[in-house]
From TrEMBL:
InterPro entries noted in UniProt: HTH_LacI (IPR000843), LacI/GalR-like_sensor (IPR046335), Lambda_DNA-bd_dom_sf (IPR010982), Peripla_BP_I (IPR028082)
GO molecular function, one term: transcription cis-regulatory region binding
Residue ranges of every copy of the HTH lacI-type domain listed in the record: 3-57
Protein name: LacI family transcriptional regulator
Record's keyword terms, sorted: DNA-binding, Transcription, Transcription regulation
Keyword hit for DNA-binding: yes
Provenance organism: Thermocatellispora tengchongensis
């Protein structure tokens, strides 16, 4: 006969309710007790009935995860870590892609709200008011966006932008450009404010170019503007934009880093394989996925009594081949 929840309770020396809570809300169970229950369940071959549990607890043990563009290499490490972390807590994750469309994003949140216990919203394109309205119907945690009264995981891109500008300054660059991302992007706004302030403090000029699509094609399209700007050092919205920019500059006979230095943001695999290998601001995507799951499960467990939490994760500069001192005598 198949093992029952009562068998697991007897084997682990706890009440049936503790076994139930171990599988439905593991973060509420003492780690030592949780491990003992899970070990007993494994030994007995016990598997909880998810349908029955949902009827009893009112929870699905499913989470939604919505990203702006699943084809962007920035998102897979975040998705993978979130799924693995959720699975350790006996939750499944449904992943959805908005293709950078705020209307699709809103529709997906409304649809998933009927099927999951909470939603992770990564790099949202919706405005804050729309997100606040949707959060009234389903627990939401946002990644890389600050929304009043909501839990969020932020990657400190402002710090990263300052590091990038300081690196270019140390190399001797005195005219810089920032190739921004989509209008309304929190990340783009943070980068712009931080880079502009650091450039002002150093007494140099920063040219703002954008908005731009957050893709390789967006970087290609920005290459002509960068060439005309006279900048010798460029910070791009993300690595995909930087890779496209390098390609576009090359098509115009501009060498990277010989004529112009380029820095990206994210530290995705294609940037490490690009030629030249891309100097970039590394974003803690895997840590963000795990942290976002933790915050969402806290919100789900607390219900209406949930207290918003904010986690800010550190970024760092990775120097590779796409940055160098400016050409002597200025760029021709």
């Amino acid at each position: 006969m198949a093992a029952t929840i009562r068998d697991v309770a007897n084997a682990s020396g706890v009440h049936v309710s503790t076994v139930s809570r171990t599988f439905s809300a593991p973060h509420l169970v003492n780690p030592a007790t949780r491990n003992r229950v899970l070990a007993a369940a494994e030994d007995l071959g016990y598997r909880p009935n998810r349908v029955a549990r949902a009827l009893t607890t009112g929870r699905t043990n499913n989470l939604g995860l919505i990203v702006a563009d699943i084809a962007n290499p920035f998102f897979p490490p975040l998705i993978k870590s979130a799924q693995a972390h959720a699975r350790e807590r006996d939750y499944h994750v449904f992943v959805a892609d908005t293709d950078e469309d705020h209307l699709v994003e809103e529709e997906l949140i409304q649809t998933l709200a009927k099927q999951v216990d909470g939603v992770l919203l990564c790099s949202p394109r919706l405005g804050n008011r729309a997100i606040e309205r949707l959060a009234a119907d389903i627990p939401l945690v946002v990644v890389n966006r600050r929304v009043k009264g909501m839990s969020a995981v932020l990657m400190d891109v402002a710090h990263g932008a300052r590091l990038a500008v300081e690196h270019l300054l140390a190399l001797g660059h005195r005219r810089l450009a920032l190739v921004t991302g989509p209008s309304g992007s929190w990340t783009s706004g943070e980068m712009r404010a931080a880079a502009a302030q650091r450039a002002k403090d150093a007494g140099i000029e920063l040219v703002i170019l954008g908005p731009n699509a957050p893709t390789e094609r967006g970087g290609l399209a920005a290459a002509a503007q960068v060439r005309r700007s006279g900048a010798t050092g460029v910070l791009a919205y993300n690595d995909m934009v930087a890779i496209g920019l390098i390609e576009g500059l090359s098509e115009r006979g501009v060498s990277v880093p010989g004529d112009i230095s380029v820095i990206g943001v994210d530290d995705i695999v294609p940037g490490r394989l690009n030629r030249p290998k891309l100097t970039t601001v590394a974003m803690p995507t895997s840590a963000a996925g795990r942290t976002a799951v933790d915050l969402l499960l806290q919100a789900v467990g607390a219900g209406e009594a949930a207290t918003p939490a904010l986690a800010t994760l550190e970024t760092s500069l990775v120097v590779r081949e796409s940055t160098a001192p400016p050409p002597s005598g200025g760029r021709t």
